[in-house]
Amino acid sequence: MNWLDNLIGAVMPERAVRRWQARQALGEIRAYEGAKRGRRTAGWVTSGSSANAENQMALPTLRNRSRDLVRNNPWCKKALESWTGNVVGSGIRCNLASHKKLGKAYKRWANSRKCDADGHLNLYGLQALAARTMWESGEVLVRVRWRRPQDKLAIPLQFQVLEPDYLDSDKTQDLDNGGYILSGIQFSVIGQIEGYWLFDRHPGEIGRLSRSLQSKFIPAEEIIHCFRKTRPGQVRGVPELAPVIMRARDLDDYEDAELTRKKVEACFSVFITSGDSGNSSIGAVEREDKPAGRMVEKIAPGLIKRLGMGESVSFGQPTPSGGYPDYTRDQRRALAAGGMVTYEMLTGDYSQVNYSSSRAGLLEFRRNAEGWQWLTFIPGLCEPMVELFLKAAALKGLGELEDDFELDFTTPRWDWVDPVKDMIGELLEVASGAKSLSELARRRGVDPQTMWQELAKDYAELAKLGIPINLNNLIAIGAETDPPDPGDPADSKQTKPRKRGVSHSRRKEHA
């Protein structure tokens, strides 16, 4: 205790006790190395702001930079394509086959472009577009467009995928009824979303500056807002590239600088010097004897400078780029981590992995992708779309589902690294009772009832034609002819990855 503490203790004992308690608490906090202050953390600026406070000002810049990287950086574009192709692929499908009439209507509607308000994509194309927008911009808005009878649509429902720029992010205020508007989203007094304030056109559209930007209120029932929520209370999504935007930019600059250095070195390939002159030819100008005595300045690849008698020739030696491959590889690993893909998926470089490590990386990626599918995309986008279709179908008299009907979604099937061994493993699980045949069918991306009906039809047709088939013999033949993988000596029966995807599906669980 110093003299000030002694003085306060003599005059105000209670105040002195509080000061001592505060000092003890500060000491406990600084017992954590991460909470200590010093030269190592002098430039570490942190804030205790909420997710919405952090996002509101940063989101426009993050979105624009993320889009720029996808447009101009091949690695970021590849990460986006790999992510979308794996988590959405040819579409996340809902099975309504148990209701024959509704199932046919849904299949016909989903496979046509009549579900798209812009008339370009079918339902699964809209899913892929929404997933791309979420990855690139952090979130996506889907406008629900109900159509009139004169539009002559079998299902009077269309969807319009919008970028988050349509949302009036600057609109934040309290309302007289106790509600509030936060980043263009209007909430009730109890925090329920009532609607969205949207512009009628994209704010960055060509020719838009000549018009006033006025947002309009759209009820929540007419908007599907999907984003990955990572913090409690978060109402807007953040681009997936946000943690690695600066790394991607720095890597671009580094590669450009390295390329420029190589170009400059290539310009100085041959030097001719004279034994009685100490002058260097670097930076000199090439003189052509002309009547006017004009000096010609020129540097180009392959330039040879002649200086006169007693000349000697030396060749430029390009300096090696020490550490260039290792540095760029590490930076691309960081880009892959930020883009939620593996390094091999990002670059196509499998030189650093064998069969086992490649498979382990794919399993980790697939767990993350499944979490995104079943925790974000399906409940946030796919379910609302199907529920709206069922509502529109009921209005057209196509029937209704039971109240306790559970929507069943099938995700894209995964590619098997070793098809024969993976299939044998699946069959062993079924034989041991650890997995049902229905679950096996769903993991193959098909509805069990549809699969049984198709098998019964095929077997009946084969029997009618007198063609025998024995699945057990086919499995045994496949196991015997499975070639070894020379890249992994620990396993004598590895097979090379198939080029065409063999994927899985998963049935949604409801409480």
From TrEMBL:
Which Pfam families does UniProt cross-reference here?
Phage_portal_2 (PF05136)
**Which GO terms of the molecular function aspect are on file?**
structural molecule activity
Q: Which residue ranges are recorded for the region named Disordered?
A: 477-511
Where along the chain is composition biased (Basic residues)? 495-511
Tell me what this protein is called: Phage portal protein
In Gene Ontology terms, what is a biological process of this protein?
virion assembly
